[in-house]
Amino acid sequence: MPDLTKWDGPTREALGTILQELVKSDTLRYVAEARAFTELEPIYVTSFFRGVAEGLKGVTVPDWAPLWDLADWALRQGDPETEVVDEFTRTSRRGRRWRGVRLEIGRFLEAALKGQIVTLNLEERPRIWFILETLSGDPDPSSADESKKNRGSFGPLTMSFNTVRGEAIHGIFSYLAWLYHGTPPEQQATFTLKNNAPDCARLLESLLEPVKEPTQTVRSVFGANANRLFYWDKEWFIANRAKIFPPGDSGGLWDAAWTTFIKYSNPYPDALDALVEQFKRAVREAGNLIDENERDDPRVSLGHHLMVAYWLGHLSLEEKGGLLDQFFTNAPDEVRARTLSFVGRSLKDTEGDIPAETMSRIKALWERRIEAAREANGVGFDKEMAAFGSWLGSKKFDSDWSAGNLVAALALTKSTGERFLWMESLVAMAEQHPFEAARGLELIMQNVRDQRVPFWKEEEAEFILKTALKSGQETAISAAKGAQNILLKLGHRRFLDVLKKT
After folding, report:
1. Residue 2 above 60 pLDDT?
2. What share of the chain is helix, strand, coil (3-state, %, to 5)?
3. For residues 327 and 336, what is the distance between their CA atoms, to the nearest angstrom?
4. Distance, CA of 482 to CA of 468 (rounded, Å)
5. CA-CA distance, 130 to 501, in Å (whole number)?
6. Any bridge partners for residue 93, and if so which?
7. Residues with Cβ < 8 Å from 217, sequence gap 6 or more?
8. Preceding peptide of 434 cis, ω within 30°
């Protein structure tokens, strides 16, 4: 034990760091002797498990029993809230001495079950489950920990990675994945929680009772794993979906589960069918204000899920009052714009040709959005119409369709979002569609407010104007003159004689 009366003497933290490095350097030896580390201070047991986690990567462990015995011993230690003294400042605070150990054991197990550290054999299942089940009953976090004062900027999911019970629930879902992947491939189709992991099913069901588990932290972990639950056991998921996403505002449990699900789960159209009522609620509420501290707007993520389902032919534009109809009716301009920009990026990132049926669907979506903007005379559609620039930037559309919709979109927006993509497209289409290119340039320049933000090159504008003049089309030349006048008003004297040149 360090002598804390000496200011320059060793500290527990420093000694723990030394122990961690020793364990890391000769991990199998220390795992075999893990029982010898019982009766030590919590900080040293924490350091021991950190060292094991770092040192076991790629190593085969012949006997896990000593390590599980050390974990069991640590979990049996009484851990009431008490005064914890900081050895540097000598100040005290209320806390639990063994909380850090429990958290580190949970983190180690979750990483191991994911295969990030070492391969665990199914023979270890009883010992692993005992530890996870014990950690799932830890009092950390409490509902009080979720208050704004205590959680700071942490949302429910971030809290879950930094609390004992939250980490344990992550571990339980990793445990389920471990069991599923350990099941012979020919038997995976019949894998169910009831038959293959009944202990796990019972625990998860108990945690979905707000009286038993009231925290948003734990509920967010269910949201993050909703797709996996659906994949593993559709029947169990459907039976419990209303508990995972409680329809009432049950202490923020809906928000915690839904926001985490929609932001951090990959779009999965089959799961959308199972959660259609939850999606209906989300699109109804798409116009609601969100927490200003929310890092990523969940309504945009909702749009991503819907767009993937639509792309795959899973949703229809024609359904009045359907999910797409309600989303585009209720979501604000910014959210709709970011949703359509996601489609543009997806188009660009898709290698090779996109099936004609899919392209037809995507074109129909844009045409429907143009129609809606025209009906509103462009009011409330500035950003959404500007998002068409990302579609053009994908270079997936034929030039005739692109040219016509480009001018239509620019006529309905004053936004200069995606404007560098607009300019690229105007240059690309100028020779085939001189009027649309010149008119597009005119419309863009009408909305330029800040010359300090470079999004175009003078050579690009000059090429468009000269190409319009060269075409001999009266409409193209007229549009080019309109663009020229605006450029001159903006101070670009280079364009004074550009339409006079041959």
Report:
1. no
2. 65, 0, 35
3. 8
4. 12
5. 84
6. 84
7. 141, 145, 146, 156, 159, 160, 163, 165, 166, 256
8. no
Give the Cβ contact number of residue 253 at 10 Å: 26
Q: What DSSP string describes 14-64? A: HHHHHHHHHHHHTHHHHHHTGGGGTTS-HHHHHHHHHHHHHH-TT---S--
Q: How far is CA 299 from CA 319, 337, 339, in A?
A: 20, 11, 9
427 close to 460: Cβ distance less than 8 angstroms? yes
The band of 420, judged by pLDDT with boundaries at 50, 70 and 90, is low
Backbone angles phi, psi at 138, to 5 degrees: -65, 145
Query: Residue 237 to residues 222, 226, 452: CA-CA distances in angstroms?
Result: 11, 8, 54
380-383 contacts: CB < 8 A, separation 24 or more? 380/333, 381/333, 381/412, 381/413, 382/333, 382/413, 382/414, 382/415, 383/333, 383/334, 383/336, 383/337, 383/413, 383/415, 383/417
Cβ atoms 135, 106 nearer than 8 A: yes
**DSSP E strands: which ranges in 276-318?**
none
Which string of b and e fits 482-493 if b means at least 16 CB within 10 Å? bbbebbeeeebe
d(CA 144, CA 126): 33
Nearest CA-CA partner of 345 in 311, 380, 296: 311
Angstrom distance (rounded) from CA 272 to CA 278? 9
Where is average pLDDT lowest: 3-7, 19-23, 84-88, 175-179? 3-7
Token pair for residue 196? 């293959």
In DSSP terms, 84 is beta-bridged to 93
Contacts of residue 414, defined as CB under 8 A and 6 or more positions apart, other chains included, come to: 382, 446, 447
Please count the other Cβ atoms lying within 10 Å of the Cβ belonging to residue 359: 16
Residues across the chain? 502
pLDDT in tens, 261-315: 999 999 998 999 999 999 999 999 999 877 655 568 999 999 999 999 999 999 9
Query: pLDDT for 201-212, tens place per residue?
Result: 999 999 999 999
Cα separation, 266 vs 184, whole angstroms: 26
Q: Which residues contact 275 (CB under 8 A, 6 or more apart)?
A: 226, 241, 245
Q: For residue 491, what are its two tokens?
A: 């101070």
CA distance linking residue 145 with residue 162, whole number of Å = 11
Q: What is the DSSP string of 366-413?
A: HHHHHHHHHHTTTTT-HHHHHTHHHHHHTT-S-HHHHHHHHHHHHTT-
Work out the angle at residue 134's Cα, subtended by the Cα atoms of residues 129 and 136, and round it to the nearest 5 degrees. Answer: 95
d(CA 147, CA 126): 36
**Token pair of 410 as six digits:** 């620019």
* pLDDT score of 254 more than 50: yes
Whole-angstrom distance, CA of residue 287 vs CA of residue 290: 9
